[in-house]
Design brief:
With 192 residues, the protein is an alpha+beta fold. The chain contains 6 helices and 5 strands, in the order αααββαββαβα. Strands 1, 2, 3, 4 and 5 form a 5-stranded antiparallel β-sheet that branches. α4 crosses α5 (135-156). The chain starts with a helix and ends with a helix.
Length: 192
């Protein structure tokens, strides 16, 4: 009677019996058409800048808005770091080369947490979104980035020095309006 009952339960799907799953001889890989692969590649190129591997300015702004709204709704701290770095070799101040910019982006990506975002802010500036980080932690993190980047950049050029302009804006310390947070970070960066 219990065999009949368990058999009925197994047939109905209410219990599972230990039985080896049947394995087919076919690979489990899905094939994509070249058109789909090209569309995915094109979409990724629009999301990430090829020269640095960082998210594009427009996508960064999207994440800025989303994370800001989430921080307000959940009443969590939220910080934004903006920075620009220039290379001074002799008496000339110049933008970072593509190779140096890749070094900076690699260092920053290695230091951020999985829930942080790093991307381009405007053309050559870099922005970092730090959900859940209050102002003191964001400033400490910005200092850590500058120190580590300077160490790595010094390996590629012994005569040049690097000048950083860094700005930090935070919720709630600098207000609860997104434009006030961004303006605070931009003004601090400009003053630096």
């Amino acid at each position: 009677s219990s065999d009949v009952c368990s058999s009925d339960l197994a047939k109905s799907g209410l219990i599972g019996l230990k039985a080896a799953p049947k394995v087919s001889g076919h690979g489990g890989e899905l094939t994509q058409s070249p058109v789909v692969k090209e569309a995915v590649k094109e979409a990724c190129q629009q999301l990430f800048r090829a020269d640095t591997g960082l998210i594009s300015y427009h996508l960064f702004l999207h994440f800025l808005e989303v994370e800001y709204q989430r921080a307000l709704k959940l009443r969590l701290p939220f910080s934004l770091i903006l920075f620009t770095v220039h290379k001074i070799d002799g008496f000339e101040k110049e933008q970072l080369s593509t190779a140096d910019l890749k070094v900076v982006s690699a260092v920053v990506r290695s230091l951020i947490e999985p829930f942080d975002y790093v991307g381009h802010y405007q053309t050559l500036d870099i922005g970092i979104l730090l959900p859940h980080r209050p102002v003191a932690s964001a400033r400490e993190f910005a200092s850590k980035i500058v120190k580590e980047c300077n160490t790595q950049l010094a390996k590629s050029s012994s005569t040049a020095r690097f000048v950083w302009s860094v700005g930090v804006g935070c919720v709630p310390e600098d207000g609860i309006k997104l434009d006030a947070i961004v303006a605070k970070a931009e003004n601090e960066k400009s003053a630096g």
